[in-house]
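In the lab's daily routine, each protein ends up as an entry in a very long ledger. A line of letters takes care of the sequence, but it says nothing directly about the fold. The fold becomes a row of whole numbers, each drawn from a learned catalogue of backbone shapes. The protein below has been through that process, and both of its lines are reproduced in full:
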Amino acid sequence: MCGRLTSNVGAMSEAVIPAAVGTTPGITPESAVEPLPLTGERTVPGIAEENYWFRRHEIVYARLLEHCAGKTVLEAGSGEGYGANMIADVATKVIGLDYDTSAVEHVRARYPRVEMIQGNLAALPLEDESVDVVVNFQVIEHLWDQGQFIQECLRVLRPGGELLISTPNRITFSPGRDTPLNPFHTRELNAAELTELLVDAGFRVTLMTGVHHGPTLKALDAKHGGSFIDAQIERALAGEPWPAELTTDVAAVAIDDFALITEDIDASLDLVAIAVKP
């Protein structure tokens, strides 16, 4: 699960965001589980300099969580597992799927409520019509065969089931480029391209919305030279310690500092779609 450039982890401070995750039901204490490394391919909780990206991912889980209530849910590409564990608060059953061995082992140890399996997203290891919801947040941009994956989602969903999907908006994430800025991305999409991908596979798109900065983040854009995102990326790529003020501002970001808005979709940071299997 990702949506950012690779950062120079060695340049980060040792600041850690205080979190209650170690005492939250369904989560093994942090001291008992080795954390996943921050590589730039996925976001992880609890790191001050990573907090902007983490919250930008987290808001989509929080806002779409109601679609998982009482359902059997597959999170395809579950990464660190924090999102699958959020889903477990409301779902009847949560299946996590990831190709990476270290991620699979981490989720099994850290989030015992998630039934974790290892497999390829282009050939989902589930029976036909076996789940009610498929969640795929900040993953499809990593896949080589995006159409095959969407068809697999259609196959494993029950009739009327929903695919909840998010991905960076290529118009704002890699502006003016033919190839993605993020080296872990294979193909980024705009709203029209994501809609086409879903419809061509047989889905009916019921929502296409986008993640935007709210007032607090817009103020931080102005404070940090016009782009809060660019300020973070520049420091990460410089390989130098972050200024204390920037670290403090990033660590203070909350999910409510972002907004999901259907208007002006091409200006959104991330695309968020809900698609239904007929």
